[in-house]
Amino acid sequence: MKLLITGAKGQLGRQITSMIENKRSRLGDIDKIYYDAELKSLSSKELDITRLEDVLELTHDFKPDAIINCAAYTNVDKCETDMDNAFKVNALGARNLAIAADKIHSKILQVSTDYVFDGNSKSPVREYEVPSPESVYGKTKLLGEGYIRNFCGQYFIVRTAWLYGRYGKNFVYTIMNAGKDKGHLNVVNDQIGNPTNAEDLAYHILKIIRTNEYGIYHCTGKNECSWYDFACKIIEYSRINCKVYPMTSDKLDRAAKRPAYSSLDNMMLRLTVGDEMRPWDMALKDFINTNIL
């Protein structure tokens, strides 16, 4: 199997690459199809997905059986003012990879986000719900989804949320560092979602992409919580001496609106390849025990 991973220096791209190289995950062994895979993991400097000619040339030469697009412009607030670059990476980049995948009859898996929804739901959102993003980040990611669907027949779209992992910056490391430095933290308690361990997500992406179960997936940690709940568990599990206090989102000066409720239901996952995502608190405890303590 020949596999192309874009955005390979990000936390998810690095997690998938590491999992393939190690041939296993915390959830168990990965499929043997990946043991002898020819893997090309490229950063944005090595492949600029916003340049169609570059993407077409590389995919023509390498001819991957599958493409996993982890590249994204993820600075949610900066997207509000840097709209052109957000559009180029999140929408045109996805379009270019979809066009290229279709030309060589490759599968493509696009990583997307809970931000494609407006946050007004009262129960976990399923794949058939109509997206209605309220931020530039969400709008450009949704357009990227549309391009994937329009330009390549063999596609998987995997929406995730509140992602953290061993590599790069994320909420877990931010809370731990701030907790050690300050001894007290204020964290919003009026935004609800699903913390997702990159280990779990990467494992399921590799499960999905070896199949022909095409379509849209939600793939997040099981059960839901607020950012405040999430922060409390991070402090508890990492044994940091810090007090965490709840606050409301209106106390924060942010350019982009966050979904108030973005809990996702992994319906497609459990009906096809199987949902082995762990409860968010169990996956978090394992992450901290394995990587930090």
TrEMBL record:
It is an enzyme of class 1 (oxidoreductase). Pathway: Carbohydrate biosynthesis; dTDP-L-rhamnose biosynthesis. SUPFAM superfamilies: NAD(P)-binding Rossmann-fold domains. The keyword NADP applies. This is dTDP-4-dehydrorhamnose reductase. It comes from Clostridium fermenticellae. Its EC number is 1.1.1.133. One of its GO terms (biological process) is dTDP-rhamnose biosynthetic process. Catalyzes the reduction of dTDP-6-deoxy-L-lyxo-4-hexulose to yield dTDP-L-rhamnose. Belongs to the dTDP-4-dehydrorhamnose reductase family. InterPro entries: dTDP_dehydrorham_reduct, NAD(P)-bd_dom_sf, RmlD-like-bd. GO terms for molecular function: dTDP-4-dehydrorhamnose reductase activity. Pfam families: RmlD_sub_bind. One of its GO terms (cellular component) is cytosol. Keywords: NADP, Oxidoreductase. Residues 1-290 form the RmlD-like substrate binding domain. It comes from the Bacteria.
